[in-house]
Amino acid sequence: KGNMAFTGKYEFEGDENYDDFVKAIGLPSDKIEMGRNCKIVTEVVQNGNDFTWTQHFPGGRTMTNKFSVGVEADMETMTGKKFKATVKMEDGKLVADFPNYHHTSEICGGKLVEISTTSGVVYKRTSKKIA
């Protein structure tokens, strides 16, 4: 596991429990439809403990979170809500608590695997490396 383990560009490949999860976090129904099987491209630049995490949505919208492991940072959720979070590194996974869910990201077999958990609902999103 190298230092630059997360750096790369990843394209959405599949997910599990999308509907249950987005309903549980209160995503409005128009946003739920828009996000379903959305070919999001996630671009990660890792420099030691510093990360720039950008999501490119179809239609040209992008969202970027910059953070350093162990340091509180200003972040934004997929619904555009701003919050402060401290991202930790645990067993090679990035772990963060968003306002209404717990999120982990890891590189597993060359894929970016993100797991979000809220009140018992586990949402898993897998993206394949494209660059």
Automatic annotation (TrEMBL):
Q: Which SUPFAM superfamilies match?
A: Lipocalins
Per UniProt, the keywords (alphabetical) are:
Cytoplasm, Lipid-binding, Transport
Chief subcellular location equals cytoplasm
Localization per record: Cytoplasm
Q: Name one Pfam family in it.
A: Lipocalin_7
**Does the keyword Nucleotide-binding belong to this entry?**
no
Q: Does the keyword Cytoplasm apply?
A: yes
One GO CC annotation? cytoplasm
Supply the InterPro entries for this chain: Calycin, Fatty_acid-bd, ILBP
UniProt GO molecular function: lipid binding
Where in the numbering of this chain does the Cytosolic fatty-acid binding proteins domain appear? Answer: 8-25
Family note: Belongs to the calycin superfamily. Fatty-acid binding protein (FABP) family.
Task: Please report the name of this protein according to its UniProt entry.
Answer: FABP6 protein
Native organism:
Sakesphorus luctuosus
